[in-house]
Amino acid sequence: MTDETLKPSPLQALHEELNARMGGYAGYALPESYPSGMEVEHLHTRRQAGLFDISFLGQVRVRAKEGDPAVAAEALEALMPLDIRGLAQNRVRYGLLTTDHGGIRDDLAISRLGDDFLLMLNGENREDNADYLENALGGECRLIREFDRAMLSLQGPSSAGVLARVLDPAAITGMKYRDSLELSWEGGVIIVSRFGYTGMEGFDISIAAEQAEVFARRLLAEAEVEPAGLETRNSLRMEAGLCLYGVDIDRTTSPVEAALVGSIAACRRAGGERAGGYPGAETIEGQMEHGVYRQRVGLRPEEAVLLSSGVELFSDEARTDQVGRITSGCFSPTLRAMIGMGYVMPSHAAEGTRLFAVDGEGQPRTVVVTPLPFVPQTGH
């Protein structure tokens, strides 16, 4: 039974028909897994294609009131360390909204479509972050909320071939990684981005809510496609070493600590042509120059134990010297092993460093610092 306080997804009826095990995420009722289970879903997505419902994402468009996209780009650059002026038509980038103290307000995808910039906000704080953007962008820009649109994600090596049979084949096969296109389907507009948050080849698809179920059924009719739930999305992003907002990153973590310096454009860094000028720039630039007190790393236990969020890490088995904390962990179906991520002091962040955690029964367990990603990213 679904919690009645949760919002139904536009695909609610389809999930129920497919006997999904439902759960709550970002205020929505969404499938955690289907009868085949997370492990089967995960491996099928790795081999062919999995279809995910990610309608919890908050879609907003930013547009200059006078129609000049350069004005909107300049306003957005004042809020995040991206080269938005240099974002070409029909391209998408991963980026961060930063706080005045150098923390991460949100991580998002931003596309340039015509004169508009389309932002995909995380679901948990999408209303607050949309309000923040609307207030911070100033009087020259409009923010248009499109929270009523559905969002699907088709991920896996067969995804391009499948999508080319459903949409314009020339358009789909011609898309490069991080291209984003507006296409027509059944009289509506679909926004297709060759992108995703699984570290794999795949596409994120924005579609009108009333068309979402028909489109999802069309994709599921293809032999290569199986439905996949949020547990599989989580295990795939973990294998790829990607952060989950509110778990691995939040307002208390900086891009430098989170190993997300690659999301800071060269032109916005110290010495760049448009250095700084975004919230927390001084703090972040200082960390890039002088280092940080903690950094995100991959973790592997020496035994088959789950690495649980919030568990403290120590340099010694007696647990007298705390050096970090686990933020997330799961079973990796690809590696047939437990994996996790967390933050540790730089002095204990080298590959192969042995640390100690405590399991649910109070027993010390050895955890080894491991390079990220756990599984190489593909499709890039």
UniProtKB/TrEMBL annotation:
It is an enzyme of class 2 (transferase). It holds the Pfam family GCV_T_C. It comes from the Bacteria. InterPro entries: GcvT/YgfZ/DmdA (IPR028896), GcvT/YgfZ_C (IPR029043), GcvT_C (IPR013977), GCVT_N (IPR006222), TrmE/GcvT-like (IPR027266). Keywords: Transferase. Residues 13-260 form the GCVT N-terminal domain. Its EC number is 2.1.2.10. Residues 294-375 form the Aminomethyltransferase C-terminal domain. GO terms for molecular function: aminomethyltransferase activity. This is Glycine cleavage system protein T. It comes from Bombella mellum. The lineage of its organism: Bacteria, Pseudomonadati, Pseudomonadota, Alphaproteobacteria, Acetobacterales.
